[in-house]
Amino acid sequence: MEKLLKRTLLSCTMAASLLTAMAQGDAIVTVVNRPDNTAQSRNYVNSRAPLVQQCLIKLPVGSIAPAGWVKKWLELQRDGLTGRLGEISAWLEKKDNAWLTTGGDHGWEEVPYWLKGYSDLAYILNDKTMKAEAFTWIEAALKSQRPDGFFGPENIKDGKPELWAQMIMLSTLQTYYEYTADRRVLDLMTRYFRWQLALPDERFLEDYWENSRGGDNLYTVLWLYNRTGDSFLIDLAHKIHRNTADWCQPSSLPNWHNVNIAECFREPATYYMLTADKQMLHASYNVQQLIRRTFGQVPGGMFGADENARMGYIDPRQGVETCGMVEQMASDEIMLRFTGDPMWAENCEDVAFNSYPAAVMPDFKALRYITAPNMVQSDSENHRPGIDNGGPFLAMNPFSSRCCQHNHTQGWPYYSENLVYATPDDGMAFVLYAACSATVKVGDGKQFVVKETTNYPFDDTVQLSFTKGTACRFPLYLRIPSWSDGAEVTVNGVPAEVAPVSGRYYRIERQWRKGDSVTLHLHPRLTMRRWQVNQNSVSVNYGPLTLSLDIKERYVMRDSKATAIGDSKWQKGADASKWPTTEIYADSPWNYSLYIDEAAPLKDIELVARPWPADDFPWTQKSVPYTFKAKGRRVPSWTLDRTKLCGVLPCEDAPKAETLDDITLVPMGSARLRISAFPVTGK
């Protein structure tokens, strides 16, 4: 932990981070810890004084056009639950909706939860129908502002205004402004934040949700300050921090709710961007590590908190809400922009590739409230106290709970918006690799279009092609993953003379022209993680992908109305038969220990390549482009427990079958039932 914090607090300057430099023709090639944040971008809004400069600058929504499997996921969202939710969810019904009608009786939280991902999806896909729907809601929000500055639904609790829903809508308005430059957004925020500043502290951020999540409010305040420079926003930022729950505690948390932790741990780091107080940055890193030291000794990038983290419930059968996954991804993306630390990119990938895909059905028409690293039954029964929630929270249901049902929308749209960044030194950075086309202003304002071709993380090659642009000198950054030793870079087919370093950035500064190309060859390898606190179990990774047991999945369709929980409500006239609940049962043995030769632990695991799927969707057992041969022994005592959950991991010395069976491993994200943390067996 101490080493991590020391590394984190290294300056983002080139002087401090320079590891290797070499002139190669007209190019200067360097290996750096972080992009240079000492310069002030001439092309994009970064941070006004006195704020700390972000190391990576998010491009305006619409600047990145995803391709490949990311685009496929977005299209499935559009045609599935995200795009159709407005037709079926009673919380989004327009009649008497609190965001469309003064005094409306529903939709307070659910509308902005859904809209922040839905609207971004509309912009990214340039879908006219979706944009028109999004603008209907956004226009209503803009017109809802009262003379005193408050906007949106009024929710008074004990004489105090509840502001959580407004925080979510403010996030939606940020990307709307990026897309349209509609000045009304800045005006609304300015008036609203003046109203917040005038509100007495004893009436400000007092309710549970808004108190926990005040960091979202703070983030928008700083966003607005960077665009207007209004000094009162600095005073408001300090006010928000002192009235938000204390996420700076060294060994505890304000609460142990999984979504709050995933979303709120970034609040101190956000405040650091204002104060430059390194203890604030320390605090966000500390929460990330604190929750994982006890409840996160599992693969998949998340932690065990199936509603709340509970002492004694640390086994990999403990899951996390889909809300928690997408909020963790969003936090990782924000922390990445703040610090440039590649660790945040790798955690985001861990969640995005291993935990999140299996939390939704492949057609994106249903999702699971709770998903775990070890999960061998996905049904509509009550599994409490095995999980913290009482109710049918493990089935794939379009209405598993109104929070995840609406909040899932941001996951892949936000991810696609963070594939490529601008940098403060007027360059560009490729950090989260995926096929796409990005339009970026560089140098003295020249605009380049760069096409990224790859099937990453299922591909070890990333190809960049400059398809449009006038010759211009600027730096290009490539993140080299920590798991890739011996990565190689070529520019226009010529190998670079400076060797990339894993866990760092490769910086190429040169005169770039239309027709130039860069190729990054990564070298994924099998690695093993040992989870000592969980019976010394192991998980296996291939590059950024965690591997799971290939369990034959049997799908059973159920009536989604009959299997929903109480806060799940259908619109009148919606056809529930088109949106069934899917229960998933294991149709093959799952209680395997993994054979590990202690002398050469991974020598018996063999990759088997398969064709890339024709529909660009690799996230099912049938379509995944490779599997792995392995060996294992069954553990007879490892069964479903009395709550019908996968039993906790057996003791290391639990009796195992004599027979050593051939088993197959698949990428964890493609397996909706999975064993990802294995007991170990030897000869």
Taken from the alpha-carbon principal axes, the silhouette is globular
Our count of helices gives: 18
Please give the radius of gyration in angstroms.
Answer: 25 Å
Q: Determine the N-to-C terminus distance.
A: 36 Å
Helicity, in percent? 25-40%
Enumerate the spans where pLDDT stays under 50 for 5 or more consecutive residues: 1-20
Global structural class:
alpha+beta
The overall strand count is 31
Please outline the major beta sheet. Answer: 8 strands, mixed
Roughly what is the average pLDDT, rounded to an integer?
94
What amount of the residues lies in strands? Answer: 15-25%
Structure characterization notes:
The protein is an alpha+beta fold and 683 residues long. Among the domains are: 80-244, no CATH class; 526-681, no CATH class. Helix 8 (183-198) crosses helix 11 (232-243). The longest helix is centred in the middle third of the chain and has 18 residues, at 278-295.
Defining traits:
single chain, 683 residues, alpha+beta, 8-stranded mixed sheet, 18 helices, disordered N terminus
Indicate the topology.
Elements: H1 2-8, H2 14-17, E1 20-24, E2 27-32, E3 57-58, E4 64-66, H3 68-79, H4 81-88, H5 110-125, H6 128-143, E5 156-157, E6 160-161, H7 164-180, H8 183-198, H9 208-212, H10 214-228, H11 232-243, H12 258-264, H13 267-275, H14 278-295, E7 320-321, H15 322-339, H16 342-355, E8 367-368, E9 370-371, E10 377-378, E11 396-397, H17 402-407, H18 411-417, E12 420-422, E13 428-430, E14 436-442, E15 446-453, E16 461-468, E17 472-479, E18 488-491, E19 494-495, E20 505-512, E21 517-521, E22 526-531, E23 537-542, E24 545-549, E25 553-558, E26 581-586, E27 592-595, E28 606-609, E29 626-634, E30 661-667, E31 680-681
Parallel strand pairs: 13-17, 27-31
Antiparallel strand pairs: 1-2, 2-20, 3-12, 4-14, 5-6, 7-9, 8-11, 10-26, 12-13, 14-15, 15-16, 16-21, 17-20, 18-19, 18-21, 22-23, 23-24, 24-30, 25-26, 27-29, 28-29, 29-30
Helix pairs in contact: 3-4, 3-5, 5-6, 5-7, 5-18, 7-8, 7-10, 8-10, 8-11, 10-11, 10-13, 11-13, 12-15, 13-14, 15-16, 15-18
